[in-house]
């Protein structure tokens, strides 16, 4: 049990609302289909609501993706600020943000046409060497 009286919840140090220690999965571990929220509960009084509730597109994002979205919003949509925060080239920052939009269902999954501003092979390999780019992202960019 935690300070909230619930085994899976903890409170912020400031005493604000309790938050879950774990994120709910978005896909079924048995068949892989999307899960729906069917029960909500109050950690304070034990009240429970049952039904089918609208999904949260932000809940399926990883901590790194949420951080990237927060930086983008705080910068009022400035991709150059996102580029600086991530420590990657502008095309890489744009590609990562496009991937995030696709994951949220806000962008077409169709690949963008090649642009003359795309990073070169040497730049991509340098970003992999510094850890700013994953090998999988590099393979996708080198296509």
Mean pLDDT across the residues is: 79
**Content-based structural category:** alpha+beta
The radius of gyration is 20 Å
The end-to-end distance, rounded to whole angstroms, is: 50 Å
Give the tally of structural domains.
2
Strand fraction: 5-15%
Main beta sheet: strand number and arrangement?
A: 2 strands, antiparallel
Shape: elongated
How many beta-strand runs? 4
Describe the structure.
With 143 residues, the protein is α+β, with helices and mostly antiparallel strands. It folds into two domains: 9-53, no CATH class; 63-142, no CATH class. Helix content is 36%, strand content 12%. It is built from five helices and four strands, in the order ββββααααα. The strands form two sheets. It has a two-stranded antiparallel sheet with strand order 1-2. Strands 3-4 form a two-stranded antiparallel ribbon. β3 and β4 form a beta hairpin. α4 runs antiparallel to α5 (135-142). It is elongated, with a radius of gyration of 20 Å. The protein starts with 8 loop residues before the first strand and ends with a helix.
Sum this structure up briefly:
With 143 residues, this protein is α+β, with helices and mostly antiparallel strands. It folds into 2 domains: 9-53, no CATH class; 63-142, no CATH class. It is built from 5 helices and 4 strands.
């Amino acid at each position: 049990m935690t300070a909230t009286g619930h085994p899976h919840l903890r409170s912020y140090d400031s005493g604000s609302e309790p938050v879950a220690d774990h994120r709910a999965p978005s896909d079924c571990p048995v068949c892989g289909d999307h899960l729906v929220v069917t029960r909500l509960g109050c950690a304070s009084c034990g009240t429970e609501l049952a039904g089918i509730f609208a999904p949260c597109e932000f809940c399926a994002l990883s901590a790194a993706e949420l951080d990237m979205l927060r930086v983008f919003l705080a910068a009022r949509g400035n991709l150059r600020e996102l580029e600086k925060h991530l420590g990657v080239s502008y095309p890489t920052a744009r590609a990562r943000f496009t991937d995030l939009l696709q994951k949220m269902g806000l962008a077409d999954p169709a690949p963008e046409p090649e642009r003359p501003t795309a990073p070169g092979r040497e730049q991509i390999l340098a970003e992999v060497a510094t850890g700013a780019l994953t090998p999988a992202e590099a393979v996708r960019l080198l296509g």
